[in-house]
Amino acid sequence: MAETTGTPAAAPDLSVRLGPLRLANPVLVASGTFGYGEEYADFLDPGRLGAVIVKGISLLPRPGNPPPRLVETPAGMINAIGLENVGVDRFIDVKLPLLRQRRATVIVNIFGNTVDEYAGLASKLDGEDGVAALEINISCPNVKQGGMVFGTDPATAAAVVGAVRARTALPLITKLTPNVTRIGEIARAAVDAGTDAISCINTVAAMAVDIFSRRPKLANVFGGLSGPAVKPIALRCTYEVLQAVKCPVIGVGGIGTATDALEFMLLGARAVQVGTANFVNPGVSVEILEGIERFLRFQGLDRIEDFIGTLDTECLFPFAEDACGVLDLS
Ligand SMILES: Cc1cc2nc3c(=O)[nH]c(=O)nc-3n(C[C@H](O)[C@H](O)[C@H](O)COP(=O)(O)O)c2cc1C
Question: Is 203 in the pocket of ligand 1 (CB under 6 A)?
Answer without folding.
Answer: yes
